[in-house]
Design a protein that fits this description.
Length: 320
């Protein structure tokens, strides 16, 4: 692939981040990481309190790319067929025909995913991993690109069903919006004192440009030294006394791909250890299960990941 193609993809990613930033004030790193997930065909879990802009964030991404968006409100009475679709009887032909569910869109918001039963939650597993839905033994491909952003409220746990480790591992990133600073909140009010900026948002990238991003990410050069560094990080999480369950091989691949996407976003043609170190917390935090002793001592996954990154030797100059 010509070098200019990668530079064009880098420009596309930056345009998307800037465009979404017209609606979401002061959260550039969160917006950027969401765009990185889109560029790599992976999915995002956002855990934060209500009212910080989670729904607006994913809507802004969909409008910035002119992709089909669908919000699915997860509730205890939601069934798998309500998400994936079901076979219905066509009275004219007396045959069953598949009726697509809301998951057959490009950008999906799985709102408050932990409020649905585990059976309903699991209906997303095949969608997120294989990009398809299987009903009555027939597989139906989902549209490309395909992105799921699921949200959870970390405060209210009554009546919820925690996501199992197998499903958490399907999410590439765990993000937190956080409250804005005083100046950011003032800017948000200025932006919104007139018409809603989301209604004024126009696409910053076409669908074909979004699809091109994945090919461009794969063209970012990865040296053996940095590849080994990625493996050392995930291996270290499996050999910590305060971690009961460490990162999976899927986490290693995810960390590699998202680090390549970050390099592309920053205009670099090869992967650096700094790219890996920057992405590691968001990729790994939701995958680690701490021991009861670590939780009792109030250690956090971010703290443990930070100690691992500080302890491991960073690869030297042989990066190409």
């Amino acid at each position: 692939m010509p070098l200019s193609a990668n530079h064009k993809s880098s420009k596309t990613m930056r345009s998307l981040v800037d465009n979404i930033g017209r609606v979401i004030v002061g959260k550039t790193s969160v917006i950027r990481n969401l765009v990185l997930a889109l560029a790599t065909g992976r999915h995002v879990l956002v855990e934060d309190v209500p009212g910080v802009g989670k729904t607006t964030l994913i809507k802004a991404l969909a409008r910035s790319t002119d992709l089909q968006f669908r919000r699915i409100q997860f509730t205890p009475d939601l069934l798998p067929a309500d998400i994936t679709g079901t076979s219905v009887l066509d009275t004219d032909s007396s045959e069953f025909r598949f009726r697509e569910g809301p998951v057959f869109h490009n950008v999906i918001l799985a709102d408050e995913i932990n409020r649905a039963s585990p059976k309903t939650q699991s209906s997303l597993l095949e969608c997120m991993q294989e990009g398809q839905v299987t009903v009555d033994g027939v597989s139906y491909p989902l549209p490309e690109p395909f992105l799921v952003m699921a949200t959870q409220n970390p405060i209210e746990y009554e009546g919820t069903f925690p996501l199992p480790e197998a499903q958490l591992d399907r999410f590439a990133l765990s993000l937190q919006m956080g409250y804005p600073t005083a100046s950011q909140e003032e800017e948000m009010l200025r932006v919104r004192r007139g018409a809603d900026p989301l209604d004024q948002l126009t696409p910053a990238a076409e669908r074909k440009e979004v699809l091109q991003l994945r090919s461009s990410v794969e063209q970012v050069h990865v040296s053996d030294a940095v590849l080994e560094y990625v493996v050392k990080i995930t291996q270290a999480t499996r050999n910590q006394d305060n971690i009961y369950l460490g990162a999976s091989p899927r986490a290693s691949l995810t960390l590699l791909k998202l680090s390549q996407a970050l390099a592309l976003y920053q205009g670099d043609d090869y992967l650096l250890p700094d790219h890996v170190k920057e992405m590691a917390p968001d990729v790994l935090r939701h995958r680690l299960i701490l021991t009861p002793e670590a939780r009792w001592e109030e250690h956090s996954p971010d703290e443990i990941i930070g100690s691992i990154l500080n302890r491991l030797q960073v690869p030297g100059a042989q990066l190409s």
